[in-house]
Amino acid sequence: MPLTRSEIREMLLARGTEQEEIFARARQAREECFGSTVVLRGVVEVTNVCRVNCDYCPMRRDNTRGNDRYFMSAEEIVSRATRIKDAGIDVILLQGGETPRELSAVEEAIPRIRELFDDRVEILLNLGNMRKAQYARLRETGATSYILKHETSDPALHRKLRHESLEERLRCMRDLLDLGYKVGTGLISDLPGQSLESVVDDIELAGEIGVHMCSVSPFVPAPDTPLQLGAPGSVDLALNVLACLRISYPGLLIPSVSALEKTSAGGQSRGLAAGANVMTVNFTGDSDRHRYLIYGKDRFVVKMRHVEELVRAADLRVRGSVFLDEEAPVVSR
Ligand code: SF4
């Protein structure tokens, strides 16, 4: 049963012992749905060029000229996917700014990656808003799942910080679900101008829209952005959101994101303690990785050893894609 609004509100403010009790409840919900497992993803960041102008992102459109732009070729993407396969990971996340230009390389790479894995692979995309026909084409090419974070469910704040329409974002999510994609959303907590009520809305939205995955990142005031002087988001609030998501919708895949670690050392370990069950390892090549400025040049890059250590310390074990299993856990729909 999803939590009520007043329960969520109360839980978001919890700290100390009360917070620990909520985390224990979230871990129990994870255990019942997924056992003691964490899904590993390998991410390849295919381009750092974006047509959108989010006020919190150094890869925003206004920075394009000053940034050292790159577009990976299909060859490079497949080569990176080979490394992910060698690491024993079967979820390939292809992520990049929102630009139509990289699509041909991605479309060319997807069938080759499927072949590499003998079709036992989840191809997860995070490439922004598109027309339904483009999503359909990627699906036919072999994409399995898609992340399209709503970021904030407050329509006015969404417009103010992303200069885009929330309604259009939600339209894209519905199109993806219609086409049979497993869909992930996500929110940023503590965005400047965001109310606690709006964070409650964000949590409820994940259930209402019927997604399969949801992430939460604390706001990071990144350099070279209009919000660079903002206060960093609270890791405690982000963790409480994570725990509320897990308790309300136990079957969701919820990552412990790098922004938790960037904001506070040990943040990703706390994410696992609050009920997360996904970790993403970065496989972008060295030269491109430094140009993918999601939180600026000094972002926290997640390596395999870091993930293995955290998973072991949390007394969990790694597993592959849940979407390739015949008996995938029931999700929030
Ligand atoms: S957050 Fe994503 S959509 Fe927004 S500017 Fe950055 S890369 Fe583009």
UniProtKB/TrEMBL annotation:
<dbReference type="InterPro" id="IPR034422">
    <property type="entry name" value="HydE/PylB-like"/>
</dbReference>
<dbReference type="InterPro" id="IPR007197">
    <property type="entry name" value="rSAM"/>
</dbReference>
<feature type="domain" description="Radical SAM core">
    <location>
        <begin position="36"/>
        <end position="258"/>
    </location>
</feature>
<dbReference type="InterPro" id="IPR006638">
    <property type="entry name" value="Elp3/MiaA/NifB-like_rSAM"/>
</dbReference>
<dbReference type="Pfam" id="PF04055">
    <property type="entry name" value="Radical_SAM"/>
</dbReference>
<keyword id="KW-0949">S-adenosyl-L-methionine</keyword>
<protein>
    <submittedName>
        <fullName>Radical SAM protein</fullName>
    </submittedName>
</protein>
<dbReference type="InterPro" id="IPR058240">
    <property type="entry name" value="rSAM_sf"/>
</dbReference>
<keyword id="KW-0408">Iron</keyword>
<dbReference type="InterPro" id="IPR013785">
    <property type="entry name" value="Aldolase_TIM"/>
</dbReference>
<keyword id="KW-0411">Iron-sulfur</keyword>
<keyword id="KW-0479">Metal-binding</keyword>
